[in-house]
Design a protein that fits this description.
It contains five helices and eleven strands; from the N terminus they run ββαβαββαββββββαα. The strands form three sheets. It has a seven-stranded mixed β-sheet, sandwiched between helices. A two-stranded antiparallel sheet has the order 1-4. The chain starts with 5 loop residues before the first strand and ends with a helix. The relative contact order is 0.19.
Amino acid sequence: MRPMRRRLAPDEKRRVIVVTDGDHVAFRALRVAARRTGCRLISKSAGNPTPLSAIELVCCIRQTPYDPVVVMLDDNGDGNEACGEQALCVLLNHPDVHVIATLAVASNTSRVEGVAVDFSIDANGQRVETAVDKDGIPCRSYVVHGDTVDILRRVDAPLVIGIGDIGKMNGKDAPERGAPVTTSAIEWILMHSNKHKIQPAHNESRATAYRGGRNGRR
């Protein structure tokens, strides 16, 4: 895929892709995927938990000369609303930021509600209409469970894409292999971000209705 990088004016709104993971392996995979797709990864956003405040993240995003910008958010397994989730809420509502999609990363985190996805990218880099687990294996459910995904139930995120544990998935998304699964997910986002119409999940009565009800409970 040809990189879709574009140079921006200082006061122009930045397109942002949020990733609900911040560990070192995910950072390495996202760095590779961002390079392959022409995105700008905010390296300072990596960490367990997210080391920057929401305002610091916005400043980093505004300083980038081009977009799309990839931002990592992580609550380090905290089932309560923590710094990563608070930052996500700010990014989704900031006038200088346009969040075009969120990659909801699956994990084995317990005591979380999870979030319904519009669709997922499996461990083979293919789009599937259900959720996936941390290994990128499709599930029967439409709900992804992960460290930092519960806030997505309470905000109006424009597009939620499920993905397995970034940079891992039993080696299928290894940075040394070019992080193909993560690259595929970002490519899909970029390919469709300029169409002004996001395709909903095929099962309207399940995933789409679930997300509509979730947003109505904010």
